[in-house]
Amino acid sequence: MADTYPTNAVMSRLHVEGWAPEYGAPLDISEERTAKSPIDPTVETEQWEAIEGDASSAPDVVAFVDGVRRIDARLTFDDPAEGPVPGIVGTFGVGATMWDRSIPRSTYLDLSVERMAVMAKGVVAEFGSVGGLPVTTESVAGDDPAELVRHFHGRMRAAEARLSSKLAARGTLVIADGPINELRAQPIVGFVKTHRVSYLGPEHGAVIGRLRAGRRTPLFLIAAEHFARYSWYLRLADLPDGHSWTGVVRCEAPTALGLEQVIELASCTTALLPGVASEGHIDPRAPQNLVPIAALERQLRRRLGDQALVYRGLRAAVRATRLPEGVTVGQTQGA
Fold first, then answer.
1. Helix or strand run (H / E) with residue 260
2. Residue 331 has what pLDDT?
3. E strand or H helix at 307, and its extent?
């Protein structure tokens, strides 16, 4: 039967995004954000048409891995000689939802929470424990506040990658929320719900807008210098008021798995993931924020601790903090 596409794929219309604005935009592509790595759209086929998902080879158990983070406070180290030095204290949680399709039932696994301080200009301080969690202290060389947040976020992403690798080493299919940076031949699929980079030109990119739920694009190769990976787009849901990219996500997997295995992963994820897509009346990032991931995020946020209590604990810990000789500490928010 010939493909039938939603009318919104060919009409010029103005749309109001269902995606809650506090989460940014699900589609945020500009000319400056085109892919810098070479792209090969012919690795699976030269005939670019929508491909239907196939769950016949899908495993019974699928793991969804994600993390949540929170900046608890900003600190200022007042060095009489060098001047104020910024820092942050934050908490992040990482874990997995294990979806057993044969029951069906989901359980949580390996939920963990870490609290850490990141200081600028190489400053290191010992905070002890705050809110029942030890505070790990790390430092960056620069003094850009944004660099502190990037470093903190990078630590959370590294924890996610370790958990994904641990589960995949057991042979479990892992859906990791966000891009992956894993080089090993493990069944880990990166699930990217926000589009910030344009990978395909008009000839191949037009297929994305014509996808129906449960169908995908052919694979294309992102030949990054340090991490080559295969990638594909799929649509999670057909929404009547959506634009041509509504409900579209991008997935990726390491080339180390080999093309045939990645094609198999692409087929089964395209068939499975629409079944766990979220709905707008429940999740502000629907349908892209998958139900197992949204549930995991809620569980992890509960474990971060009450932010007001953490903040008060930090103020008490700061007063007892040991600093390098000649350095005192103060807070930017009314310590």
1. helix 259-272
2. 41
3. helix 307-319
Residue for token pair 């008009």: 202
What local confidence, expressed as pLDDT, does residue 33 receive? 67
- Strands 188-192 and 248-254, how do they pair? antiparallel
Helical spans, DSSP H, in the chain: 145-168, 202-209, 259-272, 291-303, 307-319
User: Cα torsion at 177, 183, 185, 189 (round to 10°)?
Assistant: 20
Looking at residue 28, its pLDDT comes to: 59
Omega of the bond leading into 179 within 30 degrees of 0 (cis): no
Spell out a b/e string for 13-45, using b for 16 or more CB atoms within 10 Å of the CB, else e: eeeeebbeeeeeebeeeeeeeeeeeebebebbe
Indicate yes or no: pTM above 0.90.
no
Residue type, 15: H
Extract the residue ranges of the chain whose pLDDT is less than 70.
1-33, 320-335
pLDDT at 27: 52
Q: Which of 242, 90, 265, 113 is nearest to 176 (CA)?
A: 265
Tell me the C-alpha distance between 157 and 182, whole Å.
11
Give per-residue pLDDT as tens, 19-33.
444 455 555 555 446
Say if CB 292 and CB 276 are below 8 A apart.
Answer: yes
Number of C-beta neighbours around residue 221 at 10 A: 20
Q: How many CB atoms lie within 10 A of CB 2?
A: 3
pLDDT value of position 244: 85
